[in-house]
Amino acid sequence: MKRILVAAAALSVLAACGDSKMNLPLEGTQWKLTEMDGKADPAFDAEEDTFNFTLDPTRMMVYGVGACNRLFGSYEREGKDELDIDQLASTMMACPNMDLESRFAKLLEEADKFRIDGDVLTLFDDGRKVLVFKGAKAQLQPAADESSPAAGPAAAPAAE
Question: Which of 35, 68, 85, 107 has its CA at a distance of 20 to 30 angstroms from the CA of residue 121?
Answer without folding.
Answer: 68
